Amino acid sequence: MVAKQQATGFPGLGNMKAELIGEASQYCTAAGKEFQLVSTQETQPPYILGNYPRSEIQFMCLTANDPELQRPRMQKVPDTLIEVRKP
Predict the structure, then answer these.
(1) What is the pTM of this model?
(2) Which of 5, 16, 69, 84 could form a disulfide linkage to 54, CB 3.0–4.6 angstroms apart?
């Protein structure tokens, strides 16, 4: 996992996620493995009162012949979950 947070709300998320993916990819390459993105998460505006832009990625470093590289596992976590209960 790699995460970054801005010091203020002015820069926004911008290229932050791309920077994180680049860092993670370099990490995997240095280990002689392939980068596989698993999930991403970002803070939502308004960016005030300590809610500064933050981005987080989860990733795996896999060997070149690993079957997980063929099948991306990325899934968005729902912002809202609605549960219907029957009496």
Answers:
(1) 0.70
(2) 5
